[in-house]
Amino acid sequence: MTATALLVLMAGVFIVGLQFEDRHPAWGYVVSFAEAAMVGGLADWFAVTALFRRPLGLPIPHTAIIPEKKDRIADTMAGFLRDNFLTPGVVARRMRDMNLARAAGDFLLRPPSQGQGRVSAGVGGLVAELLETLDPDRLGNQVKAGLVRQAERIEMAPLLGSALTAAIAEGRHRPLLESLIRWVGVTLENNEDLVRSMIQARANALLRWTGLDERLANSVLDGLYRMLAEVLVDPDHQLRKTVEEGLEKLAHDLVHDPQTRAKVEATKREILANPAVGEWWTGVWERLRHALIDMARNPDAALGGQIRGALAELGHALQTDTYLQWQVNRFARRTAVALTTRYGTQIVQLVSETVRRWDARTITNRLENAVGRDLQFIRINGTLVGGLVGLTIHAVTQWL
User: What is the pTM of this model?
Assistant: First the structure.
């Protein structure tokens, strides 16, 4: 609108100047300026319009250049992109002076409001969305089937035997044994009446008639309590040794006895085939999945803190470790060069085919919207420059 208004203004000045040209020599300069400005403005209007459409709809040769030559423009753009950006040598040369690793470290170490918080929130949101979009039943069954397959491949008996042997050698079985003794004592104490009843029920009629069954029951209970206390406080008690010998034999059989190993494997298969185990695992997986989703959604939860901490550590390492920077930059450079070598032609072809598929109006509108403002300034400058040239020519002719 400004460029057109300026052209109209020059036309008005030209008409007015013609009316007063004979009254004073200065009007000749005004007329010459306006006349040349109109010529310059019209010429640049024609040039700008001819790029995108036919001026006044007339079939003038070499107009509507962009719509008519869009296929050649597509090929030219693709060739420019290929020759200047998507050749391995150009990519390697441009990336050789770039320290991508340090730039990534600087970004990760920014305050949470600027960089790291956005990254950690994005990672947490991605984890949560991934877990939410997965089919819980199908995924749970797949994970369960995978665990079953892995468990079936592992022979459990040798592992259990080796672990038990190591535990006995290091004395790690003793706290467990002492806990078991205490549990037996507490259980016996809580069920004294039941034990007494069992002893009295098995006593003969003479003992019950004489009342000795009560004393017998008390003696048995006292003996059991005394034995448990002795086993608990005496590390060298014979009962302890007997239990340890039994554990050592069990550990040996788990590793070397085929029958024991076969029994363990049979028990393992029965457990894995039990539907209750599958239901238990499904419940565990669902609770774990929901817990992970909640932690990922909540930036103050443990998972959010771990993500932020891990990103901060990574950023610090990328900033300070020159060898790590070299490795990361080399990997990025090689990856970019490999992608360019492998997919550069496809990328160029995609650009070319995309532009070719655009209809003439689409490509015209997109290019005109992108550079139209600058082209209108060309019209304005052409109007003013043309006027100045006309003014100069008129002045020279008057001087001569």
Answer: 0.37
Burial status of residue 44 (CB atoms within 10 A of its CB: 0-12, 13-18, 19 or more) = buried
Tell me the Cα Rg of the chain: 46
Is the pLDDT at 9 greater than 90? The verdict is yes
Name, in order, each residue with C-beta under 8 angstroms of 78's C-beta and a sequence gap of 6 or more. 348, 349, 351, 352, 355
Span 237-244, average pLDDT: 80
| pLDDT (mean) for 103-129 | 62
Whose CA is closest to 293, among 304, 281, 305, 283?
304
CA 396 to chain centre: 72
pLDDT confidence band for 116 (50 / 70 / 90): very low
Q: How far apart are CA 155 and CA 386, in angstroms?
A: 94
Cα–Cα separations (whole angstroms), residue 279 to 140, 152, 272: 10, 18, 11
> Residue 196 has which token pair?
């007494």
Per the CB < 8 A criterion, the answer to whether 231 and 181 are in contact is: yes
The residues, ordered by sequence, that sit 6+ positions from 298 with a Cβ below 8 Å of its Cβ are 304
Instruction: Say how many Å lie between the first and final Cα of the chain, rounded.
Output: 39
